[in-house]
Design brief:
It is built from 14 helices and seven strands. With 427 residues, the protein is an alpha+beta fold. Helix 2 runs antiparallel to helix 3 and helix 9 crosses helix 14.
Length: 427
């Protein structure tokens, strides 16, 4: 029932709001501690750099700041639900204390942690002060009708005093004034969660920007992952080619050799039977050649190299079991690697349309948008396609992602299905 209430009414009572409030309240004492320790140790280390003691003190201060970062990431993950990855670890080149100190001092991540300790304290003071004042006044005024009785009972006045100069006093004591006060408090209470979320949004940005891995480290990790995907994809393609050769053309050529051997033996004794065997062998040769052509086309079709995506995709569409309309609108050709990935992506998607979609028709659109090559394959089939690990769409998504591309699937139950792919142009 609560989920059907307006967001403005739900917000003050949601667990998300109270966790954010706890995050702000805890943030001030922690930030004061981080700031004081960081300034003290860094100042001592910087002042002693003229001696040997300055280097280990400064390195220790930066290491301590990295420990603060661990606490802040855990706090953000627990209370705000934002999982910020740990920065790249500090590794000395040769091992030992001196190597470690050198690595800490050279680490950009360590200095970002120090910057967080310095910057976060003034922000924590602002967010704490405003939040406590706003939150306290809001709930205090909203519940004023419940505690108004304390003024005449313990303070000796009729209610909250708005004005007083010794001769004239203005109190909020009439039923109308109490109701208006409570209404103003309600407005504060309803606005408080949104103000609070604005404060914790800045906290999220500070934590993710200063305490997480650097963009360079994230990019290196991403490239290493993409390299693994490319290697796995290449290995899978090689296994597929080996399997198709072994089960297809190789088996046919072995049978062809046996048939020709039998025909050779029967040639002198039974020419008619030998002719039948030769005729069968001729048919096997045609089938083996066709399989080899299909295999070569699957590796890299000549039409793609010679004439580009328009002709290559039209050839794929002509072999599809359902009618396919192809519209390619490209001002030029992208690099061969991207062109090849685009071709195989569309080929695999059309293969899925034939095998699983139960579609009557499909459409392929290819165009350029800025620095991206856009592919879209649509069908009017049954829908329900998802990117599931171990399935072809997941493999396609990995292959596309390996070159900084994106694959998006829109396939509600009952159809239609639209798969959109973005690839870098890289002309």
């Amino acid at each position: 029932m609560a989920s059907h209430l307006p967001a403005a009414i739900r917000a003050p009572f949601e667990g998300r709001t109270w966790r954010a409030l706890l995050h702000v309240l805890i943030g001030l004492p922690l930030s004061v501690c981080w700031f004081a320790l960081s300034v003290a140790l860094v100042s001592a280390g910087a002042g002693l750099l003229v001696t040997f003691l300055g280097i280990p003190i400064l390195a220790g201060a930066l290491a301590m700041c990295r420990g603060f970062g661990f606490v802040e990431r855990a706090r953000t993950r627990t209370l705000l639900g934002v999982d910020v990855g740990a920065p790249e670890p500090v590794r000395g080149r040769t091992g030992g204390a001196f190597s470690w100190m050198s690595a800490v001092l050279r680490s950009g991540s360590s200095w970002r942690h120090l910057l967080y300790a310095l910057v976060h304290m003034p922000w924590a003071i602002v967010s704490f002060s405003v939040t406590v004042a706003f939150w306290g006044w809001g709930w205090g005024l909203f519940t004023y009708p419940l505690w108004k009785w304390t003024f005449p009972a313990y303070v000796g006045q009729d209610g909250i005093q708005l004005y007083g100069d010794g001769t004239h006093n203005l109190y909020l004591d009439s039923p109308f004034e109490v109701a208006v006060t409570s209404l103003i408090g309600l407005l504060f209470v309803m606005a408080g969660p949104w103000l609070l979320r604005g404060f914790v949004t800045v906290d999220r940005l500070l934590v993710s920007g200063l305490l997480g891995p650097s963009r360079l480290a994230s990019r290196v990790t991403e490239l290493e992952s993409d390299r693994g995907v490319v290697v796995d994809t290449a290995s899978a393609d090689l296994r597929r080619i080996e399997r198709e050769l072994h089960d297809g053309a190789q088996a046919r050529l072995a049978a062809l050799a046996m048939d020709l051997g039998l025909a050779k033996e029967k040639l002198a004794q039974d020419p008619r039977a030998a002719a039948v065997l030769v005729d069968e062998a001729h048919g096997e040769v045609k089938l083996a050649l066709q399989e080899l052509r299909d295999l070569a086309r699957g590796i890299h079709p000549a039409v793609l190299t010679d004439r580009g995506l328009d002709a290559a995709l039209s050839a794929v569409a002509s072999r599809c079991a359902v009618p396919v309309s192809v519209d390619v609108d490209l001002p030029a050709r992208p690099v061969a690697a991207i062109e090849g990935i685009a071709y195989f992506t569309v080929s695999e998607l059309l293969r899925n349309v034939t095998a699983h979609a139960r579609a009557r028709r499909a459409w392929v659109d290819v165009w350029r948008a800025g620095g991206r090559l856009m592919l879209q394959v649509r069908d009017d089939g049954a829908g329900g396609a998802h990117v599931v690990t171990g399935r072809s769409l997941a493999s396609l998504s990995d292959r596309v992602g390996a070159v900084d591309g994106v694959l998006a699937v829109d396939s509600p139950e009952g159809g239609p299905t639209t798969v959109t792919v973005e690839l870098p142009w890289r002309s």
